[in-house]
Amino acid sequence: MEYWEKRFSEGGKIWGPKPSKTANYALELFHRHELEKILVPGAGYGRNTKLFTDSNLEVVGIEISESAINIARNFNPETQFFQGSVLDMPFDDEKYDGIYCCNLLHLLLKDDRISFLKKCYEQLRTNGFVFFVVFSDKEGSFGKGKRIEENTYESKPWRPTHYFTELDLKEHFKEYSVIETGLMEDSENHGELGPHIHVLRYIFAKK
Ligand SMILES: C[S@@+](CC[C@H](N)C(=O)[O-])C[C@H]1O[C@@H](n2cnc3c(N)ncnc32)[C@H](O)[C@@H]1O
Questions:
Q1: What is the atom index within ligand 1 of the atom nearest the CA of 62?
Q2: Is the CB of 44 under 6 A from ligand 1?
Q3: 68 CA distance to ligand 1 centroid (A)?
């Protein structure tokens, strides 16, 4: 929590105002399947939730960092935010049509990933959809830093990252019917890294 609080209070809109490329693709799929009400765990300062609310989806975000939520209050006031950890879900008793989660699952260690995904499953209506985006084993930082668990490395101090193979990602969503998985390159430009490209893995699946 302190890691993210510091990053947002010092860096503001770290990844800029534009959504992740993956959010544009998720939006296309959400429209195709006529979803209306979306939950976004680890929503950050709202760069992706804004894309969804601009497209008239009803969006609820969950975010651990108060600083990120304070930015989102101006940047994307249409999204309702709950402040807290996704490990303490649910924050409401709603059932959602869809869940979009970008670059959060890989930050959790194995037991927490399983517990978080169980909570997501429970907050999704029957026949609801998930679109999750994670770091892949094709990332440049894979294997760097201290090894914490299988395919999990502390590539930055205090921030363990789990790098997903396709098989591993599907295994995490084995209770779902998997519709599609894939890799997507997403460019970013921030901090000491400067311009760089992430090789992200996504999964789109139905409950
Ligand atoms: C890599 S950032 C991605 C943010 C956002 N999804 C985006 O793409 O702009 C990960 C986000 O998850 C939040 N986060 C980390 N651990 C969390 C937890 N346990 N519960 C809720 N949010 C968490 C961080 O504060 C941060 O906003």
A1: 21
A2: yes
A3: 9
Q: List pLDDT tens digits, range 61-97.
A: 999 999 999 999 999 999 999 999 999 999 999 999 9
pLDDT digits (tens, 9 = 90+) for 162-177: 999 999 999 999 999 9
The residues spanned by each domain of the chain are: 2-133+164-206
pTM exceeding 0.90: yes
Q: Which residue has the tokens 């668990």?
A: 149
What residue type is assigned to position 91 of the chain?
F
Ligand 1 neighbourhood includes 72 CB (under 6 angstroms): no
- The topology (CATH level 3) of 2-133+164-206 is Rossmann fold (3.40.50)
Rounded distance from Cα 186 to ligand 1 centre (Å):
17
Q: Give the integer Cα–Cα distance in Å for 101 and 124.
A: 13
Can you give the length of the chain in residues? 207
The structure tokens listed for 37 are 């009400």
